[in-house]
Amino acid sequence: MTRALFVLQSLAGGGAERVAINIARMVPEVDVHLALFDPTSNYPFNGPVHLLQGDFMSGGAAAHRIGLLARTVASISKLRARLRPDVTVGFTTWPNLVAVASTGPGRTILTSHNFESTNIRGRSAPIVRGLIQTAYPRADHVVAVSEGVRRDLVQHFRVPASRTETIYNTVDIPEVTRLAAEPLPDELAFLEQRPFVLSAGRAVEQKGLWHLVRAFADRHSVFPSARLVFIGGGPLVPYLIDLARSYGLRVARADEEGTGAAAPADVVFLGFQKNPFAFMARARAVALPSLWEGFGNVIVEALASGTLVLAANCRYGPAEILARSVDAPNGEAEFGVLLPLCDGMRRGADKPLTFAEVAWSDALEEVLARPTLWNRYKALGPPRADEFSIEAVAPRWERVFSTS
User: Fold this and answer.
1) Given this structure, which CATH class describes domain 174-386?
2) CA-CA distance, 118 to 109, in Å (whole number)?
3) Strands 164-166 and 196-200
């Protein structure tokens, strides 16, 4: 039986972590062990788990994380020597670096889940990019979650094209469909009383959520009964709350203030939700104004929930899902709507909307004013999502694990 060691930060709530669990489920003939740096877990896993010191997401500068990297490599090397896995697989940047720097039996496979040229930011970004450029080419194989991400690795990080492969993220479609049909929690059922646009994901710079707040505020006087709902936490939630309030919008955090405060609000922050799909299925649209993406799991989940997707036409991911192309133009694509990429600048309520934000505002008006206009997308979404199902993607991963 093939044995695989998956190296992850945690099983907290990220898309890469969910994908790792799905991969473990889709290859039952592989004995999967998890090596986690943080015991936080929101996803069930019944196999063996090995906890290690090295919480790379606990804060601090990249230099601090680099120090953790050096100390953690030895731990992974010892684990590989003991388990003797046939393959060690890293998930996301820091676990990838640990996996490829460690020693031990078996092949090393890395998975790249984001546009590394853009995703790595800050003063230490050149150091981290240098580590990637040195380490990734040493891996036996590198799997990218989109063709755009694969191209980025080849062009900017010297990863040999012959050792790269694009395997789109997989989604457990039956599970999403089942959970989408479940009712909202009783304390949040009031959300169904008003039309709402949903955004799901962490409030971080990459997601560009302040542009969505500005676009929604621009049309709120026309559709005063509409709501903007956010699922997920993140460091920018306080900023988004202040921005929404500066427009005169009523804002509430249901995860902290309770649903009593959230019921009359125009903008509602729900925090982490165990079943985000029930909210997706009831939204007028799921909106992703991301400044960059690697893939966009939420897009596939929204399609599977039968919900219209409004996505920024950023590099890379959304266009590959909604239009089957890396270089699709803005506009109504085959499976959703691709909108202009916003510039990422944070502007106050006293500043006019940019061209891209106006396009988002117009799209929200269309969704709220003429919901039947988008019924064709609701019908096309689930069949497209099926192309990312475990059954569709499993053969690709089976080949990766079986390659000698």
Assistant:
1) alpha beta
2) 22
3) unpaired
User: What is the location of CATH 3.40.50.2000 in the chain?
Assistant: 2-170+389-402, 174-386
Q: Determine contact, residues 328/161, Cβ cutoff 8 Å.
A: no
Sheet of strand 141-144: strand arrangement: 49-51, 30-36, 2-8, 87-91, 107-112, 141-144, 164-166
- What are 138-176's pLDDT values in tens digits? 999 999 999 999 999 999 999 999 999 999 998 889 999
Closest CA to 6 of 101, 99, 75: 99
- Specify the 3-state DSSP secondary structure of 355: helix
> Which ranges constitute the DSSP H helices of 258-308?
259-262, 276-282, 297-304
Q: How far apart are CA 269 and CA 246, in angstroms?
A: 16
CA 370 – CA 238 distance, rounded (Å): 32
Contact 401, 27 (CB under 8 A): yes
User: What's the fold here for domain 2-170+389-402?
Assistant: Rossmann fold (3.40.50)
Give Cα separations from 84 to 10, 25, 29, 95, 211 (angstroms). 22, 21, 17, 18, 48
Tell which residue, 31, 71, 70, has the closest CA to residue 47. Answer: 31
Whole-structure pTM value? 0.84
pLDDT tens column, 60-85: 555 566 667 777 888 899 999 999 99
Residue by residue, DSSP assigns 101-135 as HS--SSEEEEEE-S-HHHH--STTHHHHHHHHHHH
pLDDT of residue 122 exceeding 80: no
- Tell me how far CA of residue 292 lies from CA of 55, 288, 372, in angstroms: 25, 10, 30
Q: Answer yes or no: are the C-beta atoms of 250 and 154 closer than 8 Å.
A: no
Give the containing element (helix H, strand E) for 166.
strand 164-166
Whose CA is closest to 210, among 385, 357, 25?
A: 357
